[in-house]
């Protein structure tokens, strides 16, 4: 679930983008200067990219933080994966968006391995 404040922030951004798109349509209707049109297209694209990044960053970071926490709890100190779990935990604040999904897969695999070992 997306936090209410994040959802509101993204909706506000999208409303602003909608205004920019309407302005772009007006520029096209007026056969405006192509350079102005290009600038507006870039502004709309950048604004949409920022809103998209904000959603993914917040959602993925929160999910990864929860997964790391659950995995740390599942490994009380002698599970054989302590060093890797701690390495991911320490990397967490500095992870770039494009590596978040990779780390989520890795921490999921470690957690599953711990659960399988516990149930064996």
Question: Can you offer a commentary on this structure?
Answer:
By secondary structure, this protein is mostly helical. The chain has a single domain, classed as Methane Monooxygenase Hydroxylase, Chain G, domain 1. 83% of the residues lie in helices and 0% in strands. The protein contains four helices and no strands. The two termini are 33 Å apart. This is Metal-sensitive transcriptional repressor. Belongs to the FrmR/RcnR family. It comes from Flagellimonas taeanensis. One of its GO terms (biological process) is negative regulation of DNA-templated transcription.
Structural class designation: mainly alpha
Number of helices: 4
Number of strands: 0
Biggest sheet statistics: none
**What name does CATH use for the topology?**
Methane Monooxygenase Hydroxylase, Chain G, domain 1
| Number of separate structural domains | 1
Instruction: Name the helicity range.
Output: over 70%
Classified by CATH, the class is Mainly Alpha
Distance between the termini: 33 Å
Mean residue pLDDT: 84
CATH hierarchy: architecture: Up-down Bundle
| Assigned CATH superfamily | Metal-sensitive repressor, helix protomer
Q: What's the helix-strand series? A: HHHH
The unreliable regions are none
Global outline: elongated
Q: Output the radius of gyration.
A: 22 Å
Portion of residues in beta strands equals under 5%
């Amino acid at each position: 679930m997306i936090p209410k404040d994040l959802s509101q922030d993204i909706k506000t951004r999208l409303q602003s983008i909608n205004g920019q798109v309407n302005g772009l349509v007006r520029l096209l209707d007026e056969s405006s200067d192509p350079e102005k049109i290009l600038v507006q297209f870039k502004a709309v694209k950048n604004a949409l990219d920022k809103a998209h990044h904000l959603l993914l960053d917040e959602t993925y970071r929160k999910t990864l933080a929860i997964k790391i926490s659950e995995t740390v709890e599942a490994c009380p100190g002698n599970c054989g994966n302590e060093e890797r779990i701690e390495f991911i935990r320490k990397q967490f604040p500095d992870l770039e968006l494009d590596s978040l999904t990779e780390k989520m897969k890795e921490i999921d695999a470690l957690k599953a391995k711990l659960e399988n070992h516990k149930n064996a």
